[in-house]
Specification:
It is built from two helices and four strands; from the N terminus they run H-E-E-E-E-H. A four-stranded antiparallel β-sheet has the order 1-4-3-2, with helices on one face. It is 59% helix and 24% strand.
Length: 165
């Protein structure tokens, strides 16, 4: 019986280590792909903005959208993106992490600095939720395999244990 317990303990240890490593790897891989998709959506919104205002030059650029900020600029500059923290005054001064894409745009010989903001909590929540669900499923599968392994191992070793005893 001690042999079975030693096998089970090692199996349990190695399985838990691989489950933890796999869970962490899965979370960061999923987060990377969600971040890439999120950045791609920002660039698609940039393309839509440029396309719309390039074809509708009579429309004035305005700050009517909370997620798009348009400011006059003295000249052109290089586009960039970064993550920033913005205080959301609507939700009790809660700090939100936002991805910000800033790019130049010219309309009627005037340069503008266009900033597109998107809150990142969606990707964080989604990655955390999906990782949690997958880890619970893997944990349940692991526990089922542990139970079945113990049951089958006892059946396989029964003749051996009866002979030794």
């Amino acid at each position: 019986m001690k042999l079975l317990q030693a096998i089970q303990r090692r199996y349990l240890l190695y399985s838990m280590l691989s489950l933890m490593f796999g869970g962490v790897l899965f979370y960061f891989t999923l987060k990377y792909f969600l971040d890439s998709e999120f950045t791609e959506q920002l660039h698609q919104e940039k393309i839509s903005f440029i396309d719309y205002y390039s074809h509708h030059t009579s429309h004035n650029l305005s700050n009517s959208d909370r997620d798009i900020i348009v400011e006059k600029s003295a000249s052109s500059f290089s586009s960039y993106e970064k993550d920033t923290i913005i205080i959301n005054t609507v939700e009790h001064n809660e700090a939100e992490i936002n991805r910000m894409l800033v790019f130049p745009f010219q309309q009627n010989l005037q340069w503008y600095r266009v900033t597109i903001l998107k809150p990142l909590y969606e990707t964080e929540d989604l990655a955390f939720t999906i990782s949690g669900v997958v880890l619970v499923i893997l944990l349940l599968q692991f526990l089922l395999m542990q139970f079945l392994n113990l049951k089958f191992t006892k059946e396989l070793f029964r003749p051996f244990l009866e002979t030794v005893a």
